Amino acid sequence: MHSQMTVREVADRIVELGLVDTAAVSALDPRDLDYALDDFGATECLGVLLLLDDLKVRYSTDYKTFRHACEDNAWAYRTELARVAACGRGAFTFTEVELINTAEGNHLLRFRCNGQSHNWPIMHGPTENTDAQTIFCWALGELMPRDSPARWCTVTPADPYVTSEAYFGDPATLNELGGPFDLRFEPIMASPSIACHEPDSAETEHLHNWLHTQQARFPDWIATYGHQIAWDHSPESVEALGAIVLRRIPTLDDVTDPANAEFIDSASWYIGETLRLIKGGRWAYRDGDPEKFLYDGLPFVEQYGDSAHRVVPHRALRVLIKRADPHYLRQRYDAFATQ
To answer: What is the pTM of this model?
Structure first.
């Protein structure tokens, strides 16, 4: 890693690689350019990510981005699509943006990007803010410019100070920039429709084995972490589970610790099973890379119906931990119950 690099040096490198032009750098506060990179951000890695945000290579959201998003003629959604367009630097044109109310009481964000129609389902209710963040940063993979290698990408390690993020550029170029700082960029792939997926025998067996293991293991989980709580799939038990998870797994770094894998699996199973029992539904599983597709590689629960609402319990736990909000799982429960 390059030590003591300045913001100006990295900005010049970004221009040299063709990710932005000099006009973008000129728009920065000139006082920031002479900061050492690790003074600009808490670390050099975070300094690079923050600079990419300032240069509009990164689209990011925080906990308040989509508050009251469906009000004022969906002003917040229109604003965020304009931010996405700015990161595209002319690659995207959004037209015919409208927010549709579905028969189930949810929302469908409908728009055209470069003339192509897109429909992004967003659950209306207490967790709309969080669901919109997830949808925006995962569904960006659908938006691919014509005649350009640029794609929306994730980054590892992620920025802990934002709730979701995506970077627009040629993945090879982004990795050329990020390599010296141990940053890895990977394209967000356009997710195939989960509604049309028919599980094969291997996927069915994987899900059956996972569910059987969690059900058998949960009594020991209770004895260790929550023997004084009534685990009756009530909303109160879901809220209690959120508090236990935050005590046991306080940071996202702890989520990836193999020592916590069984704890997380058991907690995820209880959340999913509780949601499944609310109004009827099923567990499902689709093989794939969970870093690329929202519903791949992790068991999820979906309600029955053509417009089924889905929740990936493992991802719900990650949001809980990132927000450090012990009430978050209860909010998901309440939202699921009203659909």
So the answer is: 0.64
